[in-house]
């Protein structure tokens, strides 16, 4: 069997959903195919995971320069699996994961240099790579439309959710922020396509409520507010750990995900897996992931979101139904299945 190399540059990057996917898949590839070699530049950030994977530090460069100029040399004679939207354009014996086409579809969300490079990269990888993995049928259609990735090269592989199920909850976050009333949960973001402003608009519609709204994440909801004073029921808890996030999911009466554009939608899947009712925008890949186990709203209409929040918080049977149906829907998604399908596709596409 020819050597299989994994582009492990994700070990040098902060942990977002893209790096989460890479880490979870990489762990399982290492177990399923121990001879797999994980190559990384010298600026490793996640040293524990690097040790777990037996990652090999190679080259003198870092970042895109390492990936484009040095990685092809170190992977000569074998196939390469790149998991995080980027890969060397000169490596043709390669399978790459392109998670979405956001740089094309919502260019205003990214700096000019970033989106320009990613457009070149996606089109080039779509042409050069032997296979392209993506997270949803929505993203597959977007990549065909914007990046002109040939349909026969594409394979949809859904993500998983076990990472949060394996993390013990840290309920101290509830007492630290005095969360004694029922609450709905949202995660803040400045990215335009995450549409967090719609949550703030909806809360302004609702005014004072008999429940709290908990905002996790580093961005204060006041960034999006049209008025100087937000309702006192809005509580910003800042950045949270995975354990704290699990405790918030499990304690919440609902989780709100208002995104306009998603290649998959990991946060609503995490919430459903933990039995938290989900209110989600009817947009992009989100209906594909959430199925009939969520309450949908128009992401362009904050009053519709306000209505859905009010409806769910006043309807105990609806909450109970979504708490039951969420984990059932989430059970369709698993990192084990994801990694198995990634490896199967890579071995087939990279065969001599």
UniProtKB/TrEMBL annotation:
Gene3D superfamilies: Glycogen Phosphorylase B (3.40.50.2000). The keyword tRNA processing does not apply. Residues 179-326 form the Glycosyl transferase family domain. One of its GO terms (molecular function) is glycosyltransferase activity. GO terms for biological process: lipopolysaccharide biosynthetic process. Pfam families: Glycos_transf_1. Keywords: Transferase. It comes from the Bacteria. This is Glycosyl transferase group 1.
